[in-house]
Amino acid sequence: MTYKRMLFILIFAININSNDIPYYSAKYKFESNEITIVGVREFKKNEDVYEMTFNASNLLASMKFSSEFNISNNQVYSIKYDIKIKPKFLDRDQSINFDYTKNIIESTGGKKWEESIDLNKIILDPLNAQIMIRTFVRKGINKFSLNIIDMQQGGSKKYFFKVKSVEDCIFNESILTCYIVERVRDGSRRKVQYYLAEELEYMFIKILDKSPEATNKLELQEILSLG
């Protein structure tokens, strides 16, 4: 599993109302060929800044992802995206800052680059992009696209999303209505499927990241708080 693939599934601006998606805290398990790890995801507000985080650790790894952003005039504005990973098989930190005064996006740490902010695009990071997926599905929008920051080289990549089906899924011995959303990108054979539970305010029950090389899974284990 590549570094970029791991970042997208673990974490992995646009007409959103802050009341559309409730605050939450939940445990998720990530599984790949290299590692199985359980961590806590949270969506919360600290004063005037919204924050999403994922924190996980075991004997092999310690991982922390965080996204800070504002919501103004029904749009999301990314402020900062941080990654800190310290497993035995990988040691990589990266911090991305969005400076709207200078119109610059700057990456420091393991990957260093600087890009001008394209005022015609709203660039999301892998965490607040997932807020948008939930928001669109909740509003009944079955097809949409998102521009997500390119962590490796700067700039952004455009991803296309589509609700493929609505199926029953099981969580905590309950049958829930799940919207299956598929994500693709032009020129890529990789597909990501998101399972969003209507009864849980469209929280992610499961994410499957499939490519010709591997399949990785992120799955909800326990809801600690919702709303």
Q: How would you describe the overall organization of this protein?
A:
- The structure is a single chain.
- The protein contains two helices and 15 strands.
- The chain has helices at 3-10, 128-138; strands spanning 24-31, 36-46, 49-57, 62-72, 75-85, 92-99, 104-109, 113-116, 123-124, 143-149, 156-171, 174-184, 191-197, 203-210, 215-226.
- A 15-stranded mixed sheet has the order 8-7-6-5-4-3-2-1-15-14-13-12-11-10-9, covered by helices on one side.
- The N and C termini lie far apart (34 Å).
Q: Give the low-pLDDT segments.
A: 13-19
Secondary structure tally, helices: 2
Number of strands: 15
CATH domain fold name: outer membrane lipoprotein receptor (LolB), chain A
CATH architecture: Clam
Supply the helix-strand structural class.
Answer: mainly beta
Domains, number: 1
Give the strand order of the largest sheet, numbering strands 1, 2, ... along the chain. Answer: 8-7-6-5-4-3-2-1-15-14-13-12-11-10-9
What's the gyration radius in Å? Answer: 17 Å
> How far apart lie the N and C ends?
34 Å
Globular, elongated, flat, extended or rod-shaped: what is the shape?
globular
Q: What is the residue-averaged pLDDT? A: 87
In this structure, how is the largest beta sheet organized? Answer: 15 strands, mixed
Strand content: over 45%
In short:
The protein has helices at 3-10, 128-138, and strands at 24-31, 36-46, 49-57, 62-72, 75-85, 92-99, 104-109, 113-116, 123-124, 143-149, 156-171, 174-184, 191-197, 203-210, 215-226.
